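FORM 12-B: Structure-to-Sequence Request
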């Protein structure tokens, strides 16, 4: 039997349910004409078993999302179990919770402070918030950043940058930081999930990707804060990588190496963007599609156009799952950014 080593970090997608209809959403079950097999959601008891299994296999870092995690019945009990089992093992790293903040309350923030949770809240754009999400709640998100800061809860401003929000990026990042966000997670729009229906409307040009980085660097320098880009960008598409001191750019894919994902029914994927299921947490072996998993775990997916590139040891040529989604093969080019 071929043994697969799991990364130390996992993202738990607790529920399919969401109270936003984000145009940029990459959840594979919301793709147009999706064939993604949405199984029955795991119960709270099941999720506790998942957590126990993962800890037993060396996983140490947990992030929690959805859908919208706050819509999962019993999500507080799941968070407490992650923290309790981590503490029992001497692991005190923060749990990352990703939320759109629409169901946020003061009691939740106090709970998150108690459980050492790092809260990441989404603000895709201030003026264009409703156009992106279907909900008029930009000021609500900023309010919860303010409250979190008052109680000493660490937070991240999560910004997905699209063609529609590009011109207001300076304002969006500034408002998040002014209202209390500790740092910034910047993501360029990637086609996938519901976002496949809005590719032409939302996709950034290569020039706009560079402008996105320039704007983020400028705001973060003013604020003396740090941020990072969570969606891979090819080195060759950046005009001057040396000038970014406050925004840290990801050039390599972390799927199946730095983290992996478990969906609401327990199915395993290499990353949250991927529509391809490679196994299930309650099966043995857990990873059944070993070939696909290892393509990511061993970085065996370099596109032909990038072979021999001098930056090959530090760059994965953009998002490998976008290449798979758009062209049916992770070894193709990421045409969402490489022309």
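FORM 12-B RESPONSE
SEQUENCE OUT:
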């Amino acid at each position: 039997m071929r043994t697969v080593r799991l990364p130390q970090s996992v993202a738990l997608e607790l529920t399919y349910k969401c109270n936003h209809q984000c145009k940029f959403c990459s959840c594979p079950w919301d793709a147009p004409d999706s064939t993604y097999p949405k199984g029955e959601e795991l119960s709270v008891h099941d999720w506790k078993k998942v957590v126990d299994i993962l800890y037993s296999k060396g996983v140490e870092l947990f992030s929690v999302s959805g859908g919208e995690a706050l819509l999962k019945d019993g999500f507080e009990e799941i968070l407490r179990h992650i923290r309790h089992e981590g503490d029992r093992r001497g692991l005190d790293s923060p749990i990352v919770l990703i939320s759109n903040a629409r169901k946020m309350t003061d009691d939740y923030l106090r709970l998150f402070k108690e459980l050492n949770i790092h809260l990441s809240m989404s603000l895709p754009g201030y003026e264009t918030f409703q156009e992106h999400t279907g909900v008029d709640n930009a000021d609500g998100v900023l309010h919860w950043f303010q409250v979190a800061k008052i109680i000493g809860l660490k937070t991240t401003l999560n910004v997905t940058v699209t063609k529609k929000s590009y011109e207001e990026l300076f304002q969006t990042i500034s408002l998040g930081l002014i209202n209390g966000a500790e740092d910034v997670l910047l993501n360029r729009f990637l086609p996938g999930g519901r976002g496949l229906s809005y590719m032409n409307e939302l996709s950034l040009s290569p020039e706009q990707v560079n402008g996105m980085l320039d704007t983020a660097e400028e705001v973060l320098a003013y604020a003396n804060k740090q941020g990072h880009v969570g969606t891979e960008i090819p080195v060759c598409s950046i005009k001057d990588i040396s000038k970014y001191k406050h925004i840290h750019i990801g050039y390599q894919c972390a799927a199946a190496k730095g983290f992996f994902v478990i969906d609401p029914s327990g199915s395993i994927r290499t990353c949250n963007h991927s529509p391809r299921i490679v196994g299930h947490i309650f099966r043995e072996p857990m990873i059944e599609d070993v070939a696909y998993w290892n393509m990511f775990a061993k970085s065996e997916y370099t596109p032909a156009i990038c072979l021999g590139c001098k930056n090959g040891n530090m760059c994965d040529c953009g998002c490998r799952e976008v290449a798979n989604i758009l062209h049916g093969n992770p070894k193709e080019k990421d045409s969402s950014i490489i022309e």
